[in-house]
Amino acid sequence: xxxxxxxxxxxxxxxxxxxxxxxxxxxxxxxxxxxxxxxxxxxxxxxxxxxxxxxxxxxxxxxxxxxxxxxxxxxxxxxxxxxxxxxxxxxxxxxxxxxxxxxxxxxxxxxxxxxxxxxxxxxxxxxxxxxxxxxxxxxxxxxxxxxxxxxxxxxxxxxxxxxxxxxxxxxxxxxxxxxxxxxxxxxxxxxxxxxxxxxxxxxxxxxxxxxxxxxxxxxxxxxxxxxxxxxxxxxxxxxxxxxxxxxxxxxxxxxxxxxxxxxxxxxxxxxxxxxxxxxxxxxxxxxxxxxxxxxxxxxxxxxxxxxxxxxxxxxxxxxxxxxxxxxxxxxxxxxxxxxxxxxxxxxxxxxxxxxxxxxxxxxxxxxxxxxxxxxxxxxxxxxxxxxxxxxxxxxxxxxxxxxxxxxxxxxxxxxxx
Length: 417
Known about the structure:
The protein is mainly β. It contains 1 helix and 34 strands. It has one helix spanning about 10-15; strands spanning about 5, 25-30, 35-45, 50, 60-65, 65-70, 85-90, 95-100, 105-110, 115-120, 125-130, 135-140, 145-150, 160-165, 190, 195, 205, 215-220, 230, 240-245, 250-255, 255-265, 270-280, 285-290, 295-300, 310-315, 320-325, 340-345, 350-360, 365-370, 370-375, 380-385, 400-405, 410. A 10-stranded antiparallel beta sheet has the order 10-9-8-7-11-32-28-29-30-31, with no helix packed on it. Strands 12, 15, 16, 18, 23, 24, 25 and 27 form an 8-stranded antiparallel beta sheet that branches. An 8-stranded antiparallel beta sheet has the order 14-13-17-26-19-20-21-22, with no helix packed on it. The protein is globular, with a radius of gyration of 24 Å. The two termini are about 20 Å apart.
């Protein structure tokens, strides 16, 4: 077999003119420079990948340093099974599994994908039931569920139009046909599902119906000091929102009602917040990720029918790393801390305490809550925010990863294929 070591895409460019149609089941090999080639992965180690393409007689051997990824055809995501949890790690990895045991140092799971595996307890951020009816949205998981907001060039005071990412807009007149086509050059998705824009003053919209009482957890990041808006709805002028004003972060409603949450310095490149909105009581309370209450605003006279969430960046780039929207029972908000975990049940009940152990025989979680031991069936658990999340140090991600179309994401080092 002739071995061909490719260091540039020159040879591929020559052969492209005589390319053969790709088979439906073929994967796609992607280079860092944007080039791609359909075919099949035969084997790989930590330095070289061997690729079979119908465009070449012999398999190609390609140095990994030139390659970005191998993408397989989309398939139907596996349906969630009862008792399966999404496991969020501190470095951003997402795994799926059924809890089998808990010790002081490890949490053990079992899944059809990985078999039996154990994770250091201090590396687990949270568990989320895949069968949780109280969860409205948990992600992001790429761009598929998001829409981009756009306005015609050189037209002032126009209502922002909304179009699904990756599709051409349905326009109402010739002037609106001049709208910038929504595509993934405006917002891009990372392998871990996070989404990013580097274009200034760009908005993105997630269609979700928000109930009268709900909780939002979000985390955004930038390469520059934070400059963004999060809006409950599309109407920025009258809706509830979190936004930056030069060197401060505020919670605001309409044009005149606001509460300063914290200052923003040159080194403040990210923020992780919890919002608790109770339209019945006309309140929105804002908490830091460590559980500190930062402020509260009145929600009276805000739009009654909120059908989504808008993010908009300012002059700098913006990445959305985490967004979780769920029903809230309206009780006094509390966030998990280094001393206590936050255990939310499917019926909306929330416990704060220490996870002592897991009873595998009865499939029960044993909690210590206010010096009392209580037993909670795992079938009743919606989510668990693990204590110690403010003090744990995330393990740095290696330079390779696997991601699945159900949101699973695992970083590591390639050993062999």
